[in-house]
């Protein structure tokens, strides 16, 4: 059974030269924990046209869905509509399913993407945000999509932020990451 608000995938694979600068994530805030990011861990690199997961065992998986494509082609409104969120979730879920990565206890997913430092709890370097806090942020996005006012301090506006949060949440939820942590850029 899928968690609330989920989506499907039909993105073209990236072409050489299509990948602009990476987006990197951040950490800190009210639900965050400060300190050293624990192991085992994996790193996520969020690109415009794809998402790259680099695992502690040296494995690398590239998902053919990126935050730029999601923001431009799927999440066309700010805030996204409920059907846009569903479509985006399906795209990420399909990419994860095609990668055949089993759900497992994977510990902490780390990143240095500045785009996520705009999210509450992800502002400071080397902070940890638990999955439950990421799910709460996503629920705020879903609530905003349904017309419920959500303060900017609780969740920044923008299609790119929505896309980053959606990819992060789906990767954590479906792959078994317990925390997201930031690392220096």
From TrEMBL:
Positions of region (Disordered): 1-40
Q: What is this protein called?
A: Ppx/GppA phosphatase domain-containing protein
Q: Which species does the entry assign this protein to? A: Ramlibacter monticola
Higher taxonomy: Bacteria, Pseudomonadati, Pseudomonadota, Betaproteobacteria, Burkholderiales
């Amino acid at each position: 059974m899928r968690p609330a608000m989920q989506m499907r995938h039909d993105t073209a694979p990236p072409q050489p030269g299509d990948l602009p600068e990476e987006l990197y994530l951040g950490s800190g805030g009210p639900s965050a924990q400060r300190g050293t990011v624990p192991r085992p861990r994996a790193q996520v690199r969020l690109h415009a046209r794809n998402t790259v997961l680099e695992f502690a065992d040296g494995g690398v998986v590239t998902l053919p869905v990126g935050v730029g494509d999601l923001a431009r082609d799927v999440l066309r409104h700010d805030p996204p509509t409920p059907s846009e969120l569903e479509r985006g979730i399906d795209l990420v879920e399909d990419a994860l399913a095609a990668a055949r990565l089993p759900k497992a206890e994977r510990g902490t997913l780390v990143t240095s993407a500045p785009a996520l430092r705009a999210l509450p709890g992800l502002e400071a370097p080397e902070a940890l945000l638990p999955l439950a806090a990421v799910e709460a942020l996503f629920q705020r996005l879903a609530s905003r999509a349904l017309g419920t006012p959500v303060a900017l301090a609780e969740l920044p506006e923008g299609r790119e932020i929505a896309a980053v949060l959606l990819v992060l949440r789906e990767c954590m939820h479906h792959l078994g990451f317990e925390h997201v942590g930031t690392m220096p850029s």
